[in-house]
What does this fold into?
Amino acid sequence: MAIKLSIRQLQMIRALEVAGSVSAAAVALQVSQSALSHRIREAERLLDTPLYSRQNKKLTATPAGLRVQFAARSVLAELERTEQDVAHMSGGVTARVRLGLEAYASHHWLPGLYQRLAQECPYIGLEIAADVGLSPEAALRQHTIDIALVSGSTPATDFNNCHLGHDPLLAMMSKNHPLAQHDYLTPSMFANYPYIAYHTNPEQGREYDLVFRRHHLLPSQVISAGVTEAVLALVGASQGITILPAWTALAHAQQYDLITRPIGAAGLSINWYLAGLHQVANREAIATVMALIEKMSLIKH
It folds into this structure.
């Protein structure tokens, strides 16, 4: 069956999805609104079905339009990756691996990984994927990344998984915080103070599961900060308290002038995992990078 839509039309459909309106998409594509409207009608004519419904000058994707949007995302992402791969090949890189780190993860070990790759596997180009911190496993399933570094519950079994180790959870606070006088914190102590978190969505196998839900309590206030730097900056300014894995907490405590305390007399810990794709063309390179990360023994607590 002949392909009816061109790359230019897929780019148009993607621009409409991202921009949210014809006027904004026209600006992004550097064409007039009338020209963009003509392209939309042409795509609908080629497919012989409406892609958008038009109400009060607003375009809303029809079920067919949503399906084409999904295809446009996938095709354009793969085309972009192919062009990047070819460009890298001219420099001796024959395989590319995209690594996604969850929001909890520390980054101080990455230079060491790049150094090992340069020495042992110069043919592999490693990219750190942006904007997957809150859902790296979802990005892995969508093939936006090839490897995800995650904590908490064990990743799905349809990935190639590697357990990196157990990591203590540590409460972090400013040195003048009322709880700083204690050698360790109990879950009930969190109830009276603002809690600084990445986001407010409860996740299995992490602090909400282990500290709050298990003991049927919640902090007095939860502040969503989005990224590690913002979480630590707010904690350092005495705006609240947070909980981070020791791997991340100890790497940043001195920089933000924070102290750490274990949770409970016996402590609590989470698990770190690597999850990788294994039914893809670059699976050997993915396995090689995962093996290198495992050898680095990142979790040493």
Q: What stands out?
A: The longest helix spans residues 63-89. The two ends are 57 Å apart (CA to CA).
